[in-house]
Amino acid sequence: MPLTNPGLIPNTQSILNTIISRDSNWNLATRVNQYVSRETLLWTSFGVDGSGADSLTGILKIGYLTLQNKLHICIAGGGLTSPTLKTVKFVRKSDDTVLLNLHLGQILGVDTNTLIYEQIDTSSISGNEVYLEIEDNATEAYGWIAFSPSIFIE
With CB atoms counted within 10 Å of each terminal CB, which end of the chain scores lower, N or C? Predict the structure, then answer.
């Protein structure tokens, strides 16, 4: 599935504001680490306001949104370092079926401390109401994920 950076962010916005479940290492923070700091809240597996470590792991389930053809997300973390240990799953709300399972390497493709807007092709599962299940099982350098709860869909 090809993923590319969008040229423009679309006008349709969805706030992921329903916490379905979260492990204690997933927190809202304005500072992820010494490199990633924003004036907006970010979900991160790095710990509270950068006081954590790459070794923290866990799962965050957050929703809900109705998918269209593309989803735009602002995300950072280790896309190259053990990318399959960090996954983003699109799970159908009605029956908890995983519709799309991407590892962070497919989304980012690089290790980055900079939040990057990425575009995910969701046309094959368009129309489904989903939640995101973000899983971090990496414990080495870049063993974290951070993303904005503001998701843009088109």
Answer: N
Nearest to 143 by CA among 89, 96, 86, 66: 86
Identify whether the C-beta of residue 71 lies closer than 8 Å to the C-beta of residue 148: no
Domain ranges (residues) in the chain: 20-153
Residue with tokens 């280790």: 78
* Radius of gyration of the CA atoms of the chain, in A: 14
Which residues have a Cβ under 8 Å from the Cβ of 108 and sit 6 or more positions away?
Answer: 75, 76, 77, 79, 83, 116, 118
The residue ranges of the chain whose pLDDT is under 70 are: 1-14, 30-40, 47-52, 83
Domain 20-153 has CATH 2.60.120.200: yes
Of 41, 61, 56, give the one whose Cα is nearest residue 115.
Answer: 41
**Residue recorded with tokens 């960090």:** 86
